[in-house]
Design goal:
It is a single chain. With 109 residues, the protein is α+β, with helices and mostly antiparallel strands. The chain has a single domain, classed as D-Amino Acid Oxidase, subunit A, domain 2 (D-Amino Acid Oxidase, Chain A, domain 2), CATH 3.30.9. Helix content is 13%, strand content 14%. It contains one helix and three strands; from the N terminus they run βββα. It has a three-stranded antiparallel sheet with strand order 1-2-3, covered by helices on one side. A hairpin with an 8-residue loop joins β1 and β2 (22-28). It is elongated and about 60 Å long.
């Protein structure tokens, strides 16, 4: 996102987000801002992970509620998706999965 399109860089704790998650807008490089983050379960090859249209809308909605300049998909100059493994702790949503380490002893013979 070209930084000139944004008025300021912030963390948004938006009470209107259904999942209660925080969206951030941070300076990136010299002329851009990075907006994130989402937490979506992927299936299949992690190398093929990509930011979906739903994720873009999820991030733009709270940003546009608070910024004075409305951002559109056409303002996005680059998207990426990172994959982070989570421990399966039977959480009801990906955002509720523990971020703590889980160490299990290996079977040693």
């Amino acid at each position: 996102m070209k930084q000139s399109a944004l008025v300021f860089d912030v963390y948004l704790g938006d009470p209107d987000q259904d999942d209660g998650r925080v969206v951030f807008v941070l300076p990136y490089e010299d002329n851009y801002s990075m907006i994130g983050a989402t937490n979506v379960l992927i299936e299949g090859d992690p190398k093929k992970a990509a930011a979906s249209e739903d994720e873009v809308h999820y991030l733009l909605a709270p940003v546009n509620r608070y910024m004075t300049t409305e951002l559109r998909e056409t303002d996005i100059v680059w998207k990426f998706s990172g994959v982070r493994p989570h421990y399966d702790d039977d959480a009801k949503s990906a955002s509720k999965v523990t971020r703590n380490y889980h160490l299990a002893p290996a079977d040693c013979e």
